[in-house]
Amino acid sequence: MNATAATPLLEMKGMTKRFPGVLALDAVDLDLREGEILGLIGENGAGKSTLMRILGGDYPADGGQILLDGGAAAISDVQDSLALGVSVIYQELNLAPNLDIASNIFLGREPGAYGIVDTKRLYARAAELAGRVGISAPMTTLVEKLSPGEQQLVEIAKALSMDARILVLDEPTSSLSPAEAGKLFEVMRGLKQSGVSMIYISHRLAEVEQMCDRVIVLRDGERAGTIERERIGRDEMVKLMVGRDISRFFPERHEREDASVPRALRSIFPPTVLSVRDLVYPGGKAPVSFDLRAGEILGLAGLVGAGRTELVQSLFGIEPKLGGEVRIRGERVDIRSPADAIKAGMGLAPEDRKALGVILEMPVVENISLSSIGSYNPPFLDRARETRVATELVEKLDIKTPGLDQLVQFLSGGNQQKVALAKWLGTSPKILILDEPTRGIDVGSKSEIYKLIRELADGGMGVIMISSEMEEIIGLADRVLVMHEGRCTGTLDRHEISEESIMHLATGGAQA
Amino acid sequence: MKKLLGMTLLLALLAIVISIFEGQAFLSPGNLHNLLQRIGLLGIYTLGAGIVILSGGIDLSVGSVIGFVGVMVALLVTRGVNPWAASALVIPMCALLGMWHAFLIGRFKLQPFLATLTSLLLLRGLARGISGGASQTLDKGCEAFKQLGNGSFAWIPIPFWILVGIALVLGFMMNFTVYGRYLYAIGRNEDAVRYSGIKVNRIQLLAYVICAVLAGIAGVVELSYIGEVQPASAGLMYEMWAIAGAVLGGCSLRGGEGSVLGVIVGVSLITVMRNGINLVGVNTEWEWAVIGVVILGGVIADAAYKLRAAKRVKA
Q1: Angle at CA B69, nearest 5°, toward B66 and B71?
Q2: pLDDT tens, chain A, 512 aa long
Q3: Which residues, in sequence order, are CB contacts of A87 under 8 Å at separation 6+?
Q4: B201 touches chain A (CB under 8 A)
């Protein structure tokens, strides 16, 4: 090994990892140069996280070699990895929510002696690190009181406190607002200036394009390719990730001004399925009114915390409304619980899929039938019908599962989301509410889910879709309702939808 | 299913070991009859506790309910009420108690542990207070009623028949009705079930009512079996036996796991174990320690198996 300037800071050679029945990594090579931000992308299950968990000492590798500065590095547990200056920040943060910022940064390594913490030094050193990553909250703030973005920064400060030279960020922006993400990027640029090398995993290709000096793409546990700075672009990345061109990422929209409908009828056709008037809901700052027509996809845009989730949860009866009127197909409804909502013809696929959308330890078939089985032949379990319905829906939604009895926890994120959607389709809803339907889902499945949503709308369903991904709203929604801090700041018609118009309203601007 | 198989094998192994040492006594018709009787007595309320555990909750009031029901029925009987009528009067009160638990848990979001702990104290205190702490004995006129705990039908003790009847009803409910499906689902993820439009409170109510009513029935059978009731000690610690039996039978305290058949296997394990300890001649003062160690072994084996399984699928 000749240690010339060209020697990468980190090399992983021929990394192999086998899980029962799956070859998660098949002789993958990765190199990280001094002071660069390396993008690591790939669909879910491509092996990104596995590779980084090996680097972080979380998993042992079955084969392969790790070189740091050209010399072999033995990483067998997390301590080894940290000692070598490698810090991996996983998607699920490892913070103690009930401790303050300073204590979290130095957890287990508090300055002091004989078990007595030198509090003064603790806070002084924490403040210094916090300054480097731009944490503005006082060091005595409990971590649970921080926003996801600030918590992320605490993790980074913690890594810096251990003199990390290599920082791995696994989907750091998946729960951040655009503003918070922007701040994180600023911090990342600052760290890069000071010589920290980073590996950045993300599903958000625009961010990768913006931040990374080089991109390595994994596909099915193999390295699919490397993209140098000047060639980094969405099409190139998607092509390598899925191994084919996605010519049409979003399904085609059908003209809503249907020429076959006589002009005089266009104002009442297609019919309004949901009509909300002066809805007052827990968490809202002002009453909201809007209509949803059959066959329409209404985008609900806004920053994280704008009150979109609270609005739809209130419609769905989870936190019942405090005032106002809701009509479904012209009929006044009083929805006090999700059970009422389902009776009225509504379905809601919540944002937190694993905690609320599906039951991970339950088979696919029982998840799909959960909302509808009570109506088959109560109080008895109609297993024959259950199997029939589930089989049909698995086929229709192209859910990839070895069988109906497979536990949902073993499916990929995209397929879990399809199971959550299948559950609602089983109830034949007139209105389907989707809260961040593609969060954390790989590109291939995303496109399938978009197609499905469009098909459902074309079939006459009214769809409300909350999304924090701008391109999703722009690519899919027929109309957009924008919210800002608990208020509806405007509605955009099809021809008015653009990144600028949405951001303008989402940041509190007035509608033109 | 694997767990159930493992526990059944353990039961068989235990029976074989005891037979090797004390075969004559263990396999004598009298002892087997006695075993079935005790399995029946323990099984009735353990099934109720198991349903609650399966739904993700816990009911600590079981033992106090058994004591309270015994005292109330006995008090009514000593005042001239027919024992059957007295039982028919007291058991519906247990249903109300179950509703009360579900109300505290569903409406006030109390933790099931606390909600039922208060009942454990309250009912024991009521039983002792109302009776003045004096033990109540069923008099001579109650011979027919005493058959409930002591009689047999086709050689099988009546408490065991009662257990079989209850197990069939609950088994049907758990496997062939939507309530069973919902109970399992709630035990696994209550929030997801609520988001799926199921009235979680009602299903929890069902579980706690079943548990309290079965404890009430067990209280009546226990009274009939012993023929008297000590307000301070009747049913004392029974909730712990119920939890131990349910867990040995495959219920997880995290909820969502368990079966009627499993609970009966768990109850049989405990009963055979206690019987074996007596027969082999271990001083009864050691009984709890031995059972504690066996349960510990069982849950550790299960946890180790699960950890291994989880490692295998972690991808």
Answers
A1: 105
A2: 444 456 899 999 999 998 765 678 999 999 999 999 999 998 766 888 889 999 999 888 999 999 999 899 989 888 899 999 999 998 777 899 999 999 999 988 888 888 888 899 999 999 999 988 888 899 999 998 888 888 889 999 999 998 899 999 998 887 777 788 888 999 999 999 999 999 999 878 888 999 999 999 998 889 999 999 888 988 888 888 877 554 457 887 765 555 566 666 666 678 899 999 999 999 889 999 999 999 999 999 987 778 899 999 999 999 999 999 999 999 999 999 999 999 999 999 999 898 999 999 999 999 999 999 999 999 999 999 999 999 999 999 999 888 999 999 888 888 999 999 999 999 999 999 999 998 877 777 888 899 999 999 999 999 999 998 778 898 899 999 999 888 999 999 988 998 888 888 887 777 76
A3: A56, A81, A158, A159, A162, A164, A166, A167, A168
A4: no
Cβ contact A409:A341 at 8 Å: no
What is the rounded CA–CA span in Å between residue A430 and residue B302? 46
Partner B contacted by A339 (CB < 8 A): yes
Nearest CA in chain B to A407: B313
Alpha helices in A42-110 (DSSP H): 48-55, 78-83, 101-105
A-chain residues within 8 Å CB-CB of B258? none
Q: Is A49 exposed, middle or buried (0-12, 13-18, 19+ CB in 10 A)?
A: buried
Nearest-by-CA chain B residue for A50: B315
The three-class DSSP label of residue B52 is helix
Task: Report helix, strand and coil shares of chain B as percent, to nearest 5.
Answer: 80, 5, 20
- Compute φ and ψ for A45, nearest 5 degrees: 85, 5
d(CA B266, CA B234): 22
SS3 state of residue B111: coil
A326 touching B, CB under 8 A? no
* Lookup: tokens for A512: 């033109």
pTM of the model: 0.80
Provide the greatest CA pair distance for chain B: 69
Are B195 and A318 an interchain contact pair (Cβ–Cβ within 8 Å)? yes
B259-262 contact pairs (CB < 8 A, 24+): B259/B4, B259/B174, B260/B47, B260/B50, B260/B167, B260/B170, B260/B171, B260/B174, B261/B4, B261/B167, B261/B171, B262/B3, B262/B4, B262/B7, B262/B50
Q: Do A370 and B193 touch (CB under 8 A)?
A: yes
